[in-house]
């Protein structure tokens, strides 16, 4: 199932699968049970180069292309089977790092990106509030502009990485500037007046620290503003586009070994004197998983090609998210059904992945929101002949000459 990757991409994919198998997967069940986040794993991932494979070399990345990074992330997801770590990873790389790279000032990129890429910092992207999820314009966090900066008051809720984050990128309405007021800010989490909760107790994704931020008269300097006042929605929509594509890559990586495990089991498990794989209903479930993985990977590659060409691929990104979340959930249910009672036990990863799959239904926008995005894009193309969102800086991932992948030394990973 690897014909889409060239030789170097296969090397990258296999390398990061081994990184995950050795450094993430062995403790995945423990983190799920204890609701814990392991900072050493984060540092190990930084040392492996995963955070910065596609990021510019000037900030500590390797400067490779999106396909190389996609191969790495798919391989990493294959190996770890820990959606908690993967959700934290996507929040940092697909939201915080992507937003900084595209809209951050040179000073902001120099300050934050090297530490994020090395895994020394954990990033958080704070949008959601109580009563305000997909309707981002309804957020209540307020930023009052003063002579020495911006004073923020309000709360963010259900935020990935919040209880552990070192840096947060957040969004607020700047007061008294007119209708275009949503703005983006970035700050260290130890700033005066910023408090965060303990991790929320959730059904799944328990290896991801999710909680709340309270902004109590938090004074941020003008240098904390990402882009310009009123440009927050541009940053947000761009980051969402990247996050949806990365979520699709993560789910593809998780689904493929799930299908392979079911296929192997269907040949080993005997019932009524023959392998259960001889039954057409078992065959149908496994073939459906295979088809879903291949279709999802094909759409993902189209979306990444568009990103490398600097084109708006929001419809493809929403399609990726829709296909990925719905298919992962059904694949987990089928895997448990195929394995029977053994699949229902907690010493397998199937039940953990099933619980995790529920959370990705609404993370980054519900299925209904993605259908709405695609509908609006279709209508725009019908009426205008083309679709282009003003303010989206889509050029940061444009394809360049790909350099050779360099594996980190054992000393770096020690």
TrEMBL record:
Domain Acyl-CoA oxidase/dehydrogenase middle, first and last residues per copy: 124-218
Occurrences of domain Acyl-CoA dehydrogenase/oxidase C-terminal (ranges): 230-377
InterPro entries referenced in this protein's UniProt entry, alphabetically: Acyl-CoA_Oxase/DH_mid-dom, Acyl-CoA_Oxase/DH_mid-dom_sf, AcylCo_DH-like_C, AcylCo_DH/oxidase_C, AcylCoA_DH/ox_N, AcylCoA_DH/ox_N_sf, AcylCoA_DH/oxidase_NM_dom_sf
Domain Acyl-CoA dehydrogenase/oxidase N-terminal: 6-120
Keyword S-adenosyl-L-methionine on entry: no
GO function term, MF aspect, one: oxidoreductase activity
Enzyme class: oxidoreductase
SUPFAM superfamilies: Acyl-CoA dehydrogenase C-terminal domain-like, Acyl-CoA dehydrogenase NM domain-like
Entry cofactors: FAD
Entry-linked Pfam families: Acyl-CoA_dh_1 (PF00441), Acyl-CoA_dh_M (PF02770), Acyl-CoA_dh_N (PF02771)
Family statement: Belongs to the acyl-CoA dehydrogenase family.
Protein name: Acyl-CoA dehydrogenase family protein
Species in which this protein is naturally found: Bacterioplanoides pacificum
Species lineage: Bacteria, Pseudomonadati, Pseudomonadota, Gammaproteobacteria, Oceanospirillales
